[in-house]
Every structure is written in structure tokens, then in C-alpha cells.
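Chapter review: from sequence to fold.
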Amino acid sequence: MKKRQQKRMPKEVSVVVVALFAPTLVGIYDNETKELLESYESHEKSSEYLPILFKDLLKQYNIKNLAYAKGPGSFMAIKVAYVFLKTLSITLNISFTAQNGFYFNENSPIKAIGKLFFVNEYEEIITKSFEEIPKSKFSLPKQFNQEDFLEDTEPLYVIPAV
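The C-alpha cell string follows.
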């Protein structure tokens, strides 16, 4: 008599996407330990990169939460990430949350256009001009804390599209 192999259930994870500018960052977090399991970085357009990456992630993991940086940043990058993740959320019944971009770059200025940068001053996002370009590097948190993310996932454009 053959022994039936038990099918292993894929690990339950949360996925965080930061696609405000290149590179796009994607983090996979264990839902039990909240620890970062894997991270991905790409300089490709997020519209080309995200579908390919998520095709593999959906085969490998049971994604329970999606979260993203909702802005400010590149208008098109924010829109692509939002539409892609919102569609996944609706079609696969996955929870979807967001946080502003300053959460991912230690509250540093974020490039807007020309010499203008988005700045988070006293919980208000404004634009400021800088002669010297401020350093700003986005990174994924080491742990995924769901309580840090908001139910309001609407993109944060701050200034109108040009």
C-alpha cells in the first residue's frame, strides 16, 4: 500500500511594495513572526516587473496581506502599483493597506520635479525647493507591523499630474 503524501500548505505571508521611484522594492514577511523573509529590488518599470514577480509569489506563498507606499512620488509609479495591487486584492480577496512614502525613507525629502521635493513637516506634506539634492533612500522594514498601515489605500499624489 502506498503512503499518501500530505500536501504542504504554502506559508502565509504579507507583501509590501515600495514603487515610488526606481528601484521598486518588494518584501515578503512571515505572518507568524512578522520577520522579513525575502526582498526583491528591480530597476525595471513596475508595470513590467510586478506581474512577473507576483506570478511566482502567488505560486510559492499564500498571500494574506498586501501593503504599499501610496505616495508621494512618481505619479505613474504610484498609479501602476495601486491599480495592480488593488486588482489583486479584489480578485483574490486579499487585505490591502497603505502607508506614505516617508515611512520607508526615514522621513527624508522625496523627489517631486526639478528642484522641488516633497517634505513631511508636522504631519503635513508640502513641497520645498532645494539647491543641493537631499539624500533619500527607500528601504523595507525589518518587520511587518500591520498596525503601522492604514485602511485608506487611495494614492497620495499631493500635486496634480503634469
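Two observations follow directly from the output. The CA atoms of residues 45 and 131 lie 28 Å apart. Residues 12-103+136-148 form a domain with the Nucleotidyltransferase; domain 5 fold (CATH 3.30.420.40).
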